[in-house]
Amino acid sequence: MTGIQIYAAGLVLLMVVACNEDNLRPNVDVEIPEFDFPETVVFEQNLSAYSIFEGTPADLIPANDFHLLELSSILFTDYAHKQRLVKVPAGTQMTRMNDGVIDYPDGTILTKTFFYQNDARDTSLGKRIIETRLLIKESGIWNIATYLWNQEQTDATLALNGIDTQVSWITADGSSQSTLYYVPSQNECMTCHQSNSTMTPIGPNLRNLNRMVERNGASLNQLTHLQAVGVLNNFEVSQVAQMVDYNDASASLSQRGRAYLDMNCAHCHNPNGWEGATEREFDFRYETPLSQSGILFEEDKIINALLDREMPFIGTTMLDQEGVNLIMEYIDSL
Question: What residues make up the domain containing 150?
Answer without folding.
Answer: 31-243
